[in-house]
Amino acid sequence: MKSAKANKRVRVLYAGGLEISDGFSPAVAQQTLTEYLELQLVAEVSVTIIDNVTGTTTRPGLAVDIGKDIVEHYGDYDGFVIVHPLENVLPVANLLRFMLRNISKPIVFTGNIMNDKFQDIPPELAIGIQNYKQINLRTSLVSAVQLAAVDCVGVMMAYDSRVVRAVRAVEAPIIDGQLFYSFREIEVARIQFGIQMYQVVPKGTGEPIVLSPEYSNRIYTATLEHNHTFPDDINEAYDVVVLKNVTGEPDSQVLQGIVLPIIAHSRLPWLTEQPNLICIPNITFDALVAKLMKIYAEPQPDISILERTLHTNMVNELG
């Protein structure tokens, strides 16, 4: 799809989130997204179908598939847009960021801002909600293409007016009126009557982009509650335990018997006598898990080395 004003090329990768009344098919999805972009005059756009994840589906391998496509076509496009459902987009976007090195172009995640909680609606409202979803996705997609055509660098989230880096994106409270806020840094940009850049645009390294697709799925995550119990085979089935949003020192009795490294995602640093526990307060939870998935792609022989690695910036994820 060419535009008379286009001097940029953007590749749109569809991974899910498009609702089609007659049922999903790659050909129909590609045609629908192409039609959504017909009136934009910012870039020459091509659309390809990667997957069709729905709802709460999480597939870390999707980050690998997206990364492979980006690397394969990196020299042919000025930017990339990934259409992904709102649910579970942060794990995929964060893992993709840790897999890619030497990024020098924009990689933008976007999609419909209405998630699956709107599925159970009265029939009389269904058509109106469906129309709103289509309008919303069309608007988000056009804005993301605009962002992918400007000179910014990195993996970003653009689901509403705030544009934030994936490794700093945190789900915003419902009362905030936005979907994500930026953890310990200003947002990259705002989408308001065009793209308003708020951050100084980083420069690429000039080195070829590289995909490192290896990752570990042996990461156990838990939110500590009074009645939480860990699997009996946790020391054999997993490489590391991550405790989410810890507000105080965990009860040693709860963690008794776990010999794996235990990473406490806590914004309040504290000391503990448990030798296998590390506190990481200055990172988002999704970035922490993605970082551990990359770290444990290779065996980690020593907890002191693991702790040093966790406290070292890999993709500017620490704040």
Describe what you observe in this structure.
The chain has 319 residues and is of the alpha/beta class. It folds into two domains: 203 residues, Rossmann fold; 92 residues, no CATH class. The protein is built from seven helices and 16 strands. An eight-stranded mixed sheet has the order 2-1-3-5-6-7-10-11, sandwiched between helices. Strands 13-14-15-16 form a four-stranded parallel sheet, covered by helices on one side. Strands 4-12 form a two-stranded antiparallel sheet. A hairpin with a 4-residue loop joins β6 and β7. The longest helix has 26 residues.
Compact description:
With 319 residues, the protein is of the alpha/beta class. Helices cover 26% and strands 21% of the residues.
| CATH topology heading of the largest domain | Rossmann fold
Task: Compute the number of strand runs.
Answer: 16
Q: What Rg is obtained from the alpha carbons, in whole angstroms?
A: 21 Å
- Through-space gap between termini: 40 Å
Features:
8-stranded mixed sheet, single chain, 21% strand, Rossmann fold, 2 domains, alpha/beta
Could you outline the blueprint of secondary structure elements for this entry?
Layout: E1 9-16, H1 26-36, E2 44-53, H2 61-72, E3 79-83, H3 89-99, E4 100-101, E5 106-110, H4 123-148, E6 154-157, E7 162-165, E8 169-171, E9 180-182, E10 189-191, E11 195-197, E12 210-211, E13 219-222, H5 234-237, E14 240-243, E15 262-265, E16 277-280, H6 285-295, H7 303-310
Parallel strand pairs: 1-2, 1-3, 3-5, 5-6, 13-14, 14-15, 15-16
Antiparallel strand pairs: 4-12, 6-7, 7-10, 8-9, 10-11
Helix pairs in contact: 2-3, 3-6
